[in-house]
Amino acid sequence: MRMRAAADLAGLDAFGIASAEPFEAVGRTLRERKNAGLSGRLGFTYRDPDLAADVRRSFGWAKSLVVAASAYVPRSGSPGPPDGTGGRVARFATRDHYAPLRAGLGVLAELLTTSGFRAELLVDDGRLVDRAAAVRAGVAWWGKSTMVISPKHGPWLLLGSIVTDADLPLSKAMRRDCGKCDVCIPACPTGALIAPGVLDATRCIAYWAQTAGVVPRSLRRPWGDRIYGCDDCLDACPPGHASLEQTAESERIDLTGLLSADDEALLDFAGHWFIPKRDPDYIRRNALIALGNSGRSEHLPILARYLHHRRATLRCHAAWALGEMGEGARPALAERRTVEHDPAVLEEIDAAIGNLD
After folding, report:
1. At what angle do helices 312-323 and 330-337 cross, to 10 degrees?
2. Cis ω on the peptide bond leading into residue 74 (within 30° of 0)?
3. Using one digit for the tens of pLDDT, what is the confidence trace for 133-160?
4. Less CB within 10 Å around the terminal CB: N or C of the chain?
5. Would you name the residues annotated as active-site residues?
6. pTM of this prediction?
7. Could you tell me which of 345, 340, 318, 339 has the C-alpha nearest to residue 329?
């Protein structure tokens, strides 16, 4: 088949073709979980489940979905051992790993358009539940972690599709499943996987790393040294272990460097991340939590400086981080307590002092 050969030449790691029929069961599940509050403030496919589960609402001419996947491990690298000064980023975000996927799909789209068909790329797009399309196209199965999993690459896949009016021969849907394996569920550091295939996003570190506001206090210690994303449920998945064994160790990210950088440098560093309102203070918020979990007294000065930051959100997280640092943090907290006016920050300062007591 020309399309499959082109996908291989374009460097795509998995390929299949699915019908553009609605994903009715998936749409029902999205609505149920949204109504139950499990999606939190997630947009994407939860913004309009009916739209996401029926690509023909956006593209009335759609007949087929050309689905592809790009494996990003081992290219992403693995963070070196924790040293109390560096933070880590989930492997999918270490650089723009979507770039090879977009490029490969672009080759397939051009093949369709030069043959006289319509072709629209959907990559990380809320108009299609890409995991459902991947399962229907035989690219992967839906795992208990809510990730899709392939026999060769495990869960280390990024997905994309082309919507086309070409009536293409369909691939067989993936019929495999996780069987009795459920190691991803206890691997979640915050218990966000509340049942096989069911995620409570409001407990998920990866969700909060890209969500505006104050991170719930109950999630901050499990947050560990993360800056963006969380790989724990993926790391635990046995089909992905072979890929992990091929990854090279990479350097951790300097947390104090991030917290000392200006806005332009931060956005340049994390330009491919989803950051609420493109506001670099959310990167700083995440780094403050990671620094608080380091337990290293040499970080007291930068945390004390952030306790006087103009943004209350950052003062909140700096106060919490200082409360994790031991008795040496008490003077900075007590001093700020005398001048702080924001109720949320005062609550965090009092909780931090209480933690020291």
Report:
1. 140
2. yes
3. 999 999 999 999 999 999 999 999 999 9
4. C
5. 124
6. 0.94
7. 318
